[in-house]
Amino acid sequence: MQIVPPSPIQHMDFWSHIDSLITLPADTALPDVVIVGLPDGAVITRIISMIKYSSKKDTSSSDNSITAGYVKSREKLVPGTYSIGIYLISGEASVTADTEESGDVHVGNVDISGTDSGITENCIVQSVFNGVTTTGASIELYDVQVGVRVYFR
Questions:
Q1: How far apart are CA 75 and CA 57, in angstroms?
Q2: What's the pTM?
Q3: Which residues are CB-contacts of 72 (< 8 A; sequence separation ≥ 6)?
Q4: Does 90 have pLDDT greater than 90?
Q5: 10 Å Cβ neighbour count for 91?
């Protein structure tokens, strides 16, 4: 009897176009991500979402940060239910009053694949900031991109 080891888990990253400016707090649509080009026969084991921005700026004249919120995603063309992909916690995207500072990348740890979100291979992923609140009046995020990492065998 020959023992065949399982195929290794691989991943591919897919990124949206850049949205030059998003202002928080708001329930705001984010740029779409197109998932296409996975190898034939790939079996998806997990999908996670990511968001990056090049810089952040306080426009409220007070120290500012996110106090709560989510990044939610779903399949766009045959929409499923929005699934929370990234939990935003108090203190994220903190920025000193009236300054512009460098950005960050936030990587979710929630699997957004499957029937609830409808996200599978070869689809368009629609994401939104949802329920985001800030300590000051507003934070501007520049050059915002959404990413999706697909793990597969």
A1: 31
A2: 0.90
A3: 82, 83, 84, 85, 127, 128, 130
A4: yes
A5: 10
Supply the DSSP symbol for 135.
Answer: S
Q: What is the rounded CA–CA span in Å between residue 144 and residue 56?
A: 10
Q: What is the CA radius of gyration of the chain?
A: 17
CA 115 to CA 69: how far, in whole Å? 23
Taking only the tens place, the pLDDT of each residue in 98-122 is 999 999 999 999 999 987 898 888 8
Cα-based distances in Å from 119 to 41, 127, 132, 145: 17, 11, 23, 18
Q: Helix or strand or coil: residue 152?
A: strand
Q: For 50-114, give the secondary structure using H, E and C.
A: EEEEEEEEECCCCCECEEEEEEEEEECCCCCCCEEEEEECCCCCCECCCCEEEEEEEECCCCCEC
CA 45 – CA 100 distance, rounded (Å)? 39
Tens digit of each residue's pLDDT (9 = 90 or more) over 2-60: 887 777 899 999 999 999 999 999 899 999 999 999 999 899 999 999 999 999 999 99
Q: What is the set of domains in the chain, with CATH numbers? A: 10-152 (2.60.120)
CB 146 within 8 A of CB 33: yes
